[in-house]
Design a protein that fits this description.
- The chain has 354 residues and is an alpha/beta fold.
- The protein has 2 domains: 50 residues, no CATH class; 295 residues, TIM Barrel.
- The chain has 12 helices and 9 strands.
- The protein has a 9-stranded parallel sheet.
- The longest helix has 17 residues.
- The chain binds zinc ion.
- The site of zinc ion has 4 residues, from strand 1.
- Keywords: Lyase, Signal.
């Protein structure tokens, strides 16, 4: 199946190359092959501008509205926020998401909504929560864990070695046994990034005594390499570039990335063909390790001070992937298939499948 797809893909590419006016990084979808060859050539232009398409985008990195934090939302309010949010993103065929969230209230609510998953956002003092992690996994309240090295920034002594403490290794061992994925944010802003309103943390780096690279290396050698059965998802790490990430994927077969922050393009911006090419190759080669994710805050329009969240944040992640003109199989994996595979036995059944 895969082989024949590849063969027809190569055939399509050579056909496309032979036709004038088709200098585009988008390979024709297999159905279009019939048009290229049949109907005495009359219909060959029909659908040429239709890119490959995925019906089921799955946002693997989302948060509840900012308003969740000062005022803990109750079940009915969470329902309202999420219904509204998925109403917006449903326009772009995105109907499922993973919330990274610390609150039991969210988990108890999400349990009954097959569109929503929760990765428990723990802080580094919570390694002693292992029995409660087990309970929540078994009760269907959570489908993964989320860890964040930004915690160290808020401490007087920003040492990061707690990540490799025996208590945390016990948690990681449980994740291996339970096939529970872990998303980890292991990078802190260094400088300001005007394009995404990023704020720098120069003051932190001036006193930290270590670098982003050391933090990542420790995570890879102490967590990822020592727990090879855990699926580790690096949040926001695409900025490193396709070559660096490819090398990491080669070295660690249990490593994944989400597309948040690093793969971002505003709606009236463009990528040149030369910019598209390495990303396109990267996505095709590593489709099984890349998960569409946006780091969006699903918001309640009445309360939020971020009314542009959909257009200024969520959509640019969608646009970046869309502009790459990926083959259907790759697009299906990047937009949802890889996320489904990472969730594995924790994947919820949608009502239509029951
Ligand atoms: Zn996030």
């Amino acid at each position: 199946m895969k082989k024949s797809f590849l063969l027809s893909f190569v055939l399509m590419l050579s056909l496309a190359a032979a036709l004038p006016g088709q200098e585009t990084p988008v390979a024709p979808y297999p159905d279009n092959l019939e048009r290229l060859q049949g109907d005495n050539g009359f219909s060959r232009g029909f659908g040429d501008t239709n890119h490959s398409f995925s019906f089921d985008w799955f946002d693997s990195h989302a948060h509840l509205a900012w308003s969740h934090y000062p005022n803990l939302l109750k079940g009915g309010q969470i329902q309202e926020v999420i219904d509204r949010w998925l109403g917006y993103t449903g326009v772009y065929h995105s109907g499922r998401l993973i919330l990274l969230d610390p609150y039991l209230e969210t988990m108890e609510w999400a349990k009954n909504d097959p569109r929503v998953y929760v990765f428990w956002w723990l802080v580094w003092e919570q390694a002693n929560q292992l029995p409660e992690i087990k309970r929540r996994v078994e009760a269907g309240l959570i489908q993964g864990l989320k860890l964040h090295t930004g915690d160290f920034r808020r401490k007087e002594n920003p040492d990061y070695h707690v990540m490799g403490s025996e208590a945390w290794h016990k948690v990681y061992r449980y994740c291996e046994e339970a096939d529970l994925p872990v998303l980890i944010h292991v990078n802190e802003h260094w400088g300001d990034q005007a394009y995404t309103y990023g704020r720098g943390a120069k003051k932190f780096w001036a006193r930290a005594g270590y670098t982003n690279q050391e933090l990542l290396d420790y995570c890879l050698s102490e967590l990822v390499a020592k727990h090879p059965k855990v699926k580790w998802i690096l949040a926001h790490m695409n900025f490193q570039g396709t070559e660096t990430l490819s090398a990491l994927f080669e070295r660690y077969p249990n490593l994944y990335v989400d597309t948040s922050i690093g793969m971002f393009l505003r709606e009236y911006d463009h990528l040149t063909a030369a910019e598209i090419e390495p990303y396109r190759k990267f996505c095709i080669r590593w489709a099984d390790r890349i998960m569409f994710g946006t780091d969006v805050f699903a918001y309640h329009p009445l309360e939020s001070s971020y009314p542009g969240s959909l257009h200024n944040w969520w959509l640019p992640h969608y646009i970046f992937i869309s502009r790459l003109g990926l083959p259907q199989e790759t697009l299906d994996k990047v937009t949802h298939g890889t996320c489904e595979a990472v969730l594995g036995k924790y994947l919820k059944k949608m009502p239509a499948e029951e």
